[in-house]
Amino acid sequence: MERRYTAFSRLRFQGVARRAATAQARPRPADCAGVRERILAVEDDPAIQRILERVLTHRGSEVVVAATGEDALRAIDADLFDLALVDYGIPAPNGLEVLQYLSTVQPECVRVLMSGQLDLPVTMAAVNRGDVSRVLQKPFRMAELSALVDSAIASRERAARRIGARRDRNDRRRYEALVDCLRGDYLSLAVQPICTATSDRRIVAFEALLRSRHEELDNPGALLSAAEQFDRIEDLGAIVARLAAEWVCRFPLDVRLFMNLHPAELGNPDAMVRRLQPLVPYAPRVVLEITERSSIAGVSSLPDAIARLSELGFAIAVDDLGAGYSSLSVLADLDPQFIKVDMSIVRHIDRDPRKRRLMELLCRFADATESLVIAEGVETEAEAATAIDCGVHLLQGYLLGRPGFELPERAAVAEAVA
User: Does 211 share its domain with 94?
Assistant: First the structure.
């Protein structure tokens, strides 16, 4: 069995993560109004097939019948089930292998193994691993089958209620933490220097990076995720604009501030301009970064939003270019003054000819469109030297300076921009 499972796993388990993600996006049968539980019955004996189908249909369940392991796997890939009744001795893959696959891609499904000749050690190991929820010994009476199905479905519904209650509690806690962050003194901006790609590496700008001191939402990713979940991106954006204005007024006049603008904020240009009001007096010294990772294709007001920002004097940067899945058409959509190349391209660029060629192409494009390329995430002198050889105009990364809450000595900054 172990050799057969190994071959099976190579063939079937390669797409587990993708199928699991797809399954989570679909509603479970018992969660849909007007639909009873959906049950998968896998049995190669036609007589027992008919019994299973008759008993389960009579109780109001929707039943999908399969005769082989391969048929069962196809059904699992195509649909979601609340309960699976699978015979141990079906044609390969056997019942245990099918249930193990099911436990991986549909963990909420109750998994019942049926057999008249169980390999007890193997079965107990599968139960202990969680691949099998229950065992139904053959031969069984129809009343016994009905009782087991009723009990299994009831236990699944109880588990679903517990998960739902836990999810509700977690959501409440996240929302309360987000409100704390938006109302309290938990948020701040660190700044990281952006330098010229010349031998003196003059500081010409700083990027503002969001930080949180809240114990629940203690990093930018968690904070942004909560703001997106509870539709509070605009509130968060207003706070970031206010904090950014406090920074830029401290900079020497020739030093710019780069800050991120969430793509969702582009959906309402009037509201966006109101939130950015604290920065409007400094607009010629502020660059708004729009990340390439987030889709802007569905933002119908994008041209109007970009035009409004340009009229106010803000410059535009494409952030994280090369990190996401969108096409280079984002450069045409935004017509940016700055192109920030993601660290995934910069990392080890000195050792990878393909990355160097890509960077050279981006720099030639930037020169042709009068924009500037910033290499993000520069950590070594070799990366910096190679990026400069490719034509990069500006550098950012730990090699040049880490994010911090204090500016470098004012004299040093003033000398850098003199």
Answer: no
Distance of CA 335 to the CA centre of its chain: 27
Are β-strands 286-291 and 315-321 bridged in parallel, bridged antiparallel, or unpaired? parallel
245, 294: one domain:
yes
Q: What is the dihedral of CA 220, 225, 230, 233, to 10 degrees?
A: 50
Pairing label, strands 203-212, 187-196: antiparallel
In a domain, residue 86? The reply is: yes
Q: What is the mean pLDDT of residues 313-341?
A: 82
In this structure, what are the phi and psi dihedrals at residue 81, rounded to the nearest 5 degrees? -130, 145
Q: 128-143: per-residue pLDDT in tens? A: 666 787 888 888 787 7
Structure tokens at 356: 């160097």
* Residue 343 pLDDT class (50, 70, 90 cuts): very high
User: Number of structural domains, the chain?
Assistant: 2
List, in sequence order, every residue forming a beta bridge with 374; answer none if it has no partner: 340, 394
Distance CA 296, CA 96 (A): 46
Signed CA dihedral, 17, 22, 25, 27: sign only: negative
Q: The domain containing residue 110 runs over which residues?
A: 2-164
Report the chain's C-alpha Rg in angstroms. 29
CA gap 369, 357 in Å, rounded: 19
The DSSP line for 51-62 is HHHHHHHHTT-E
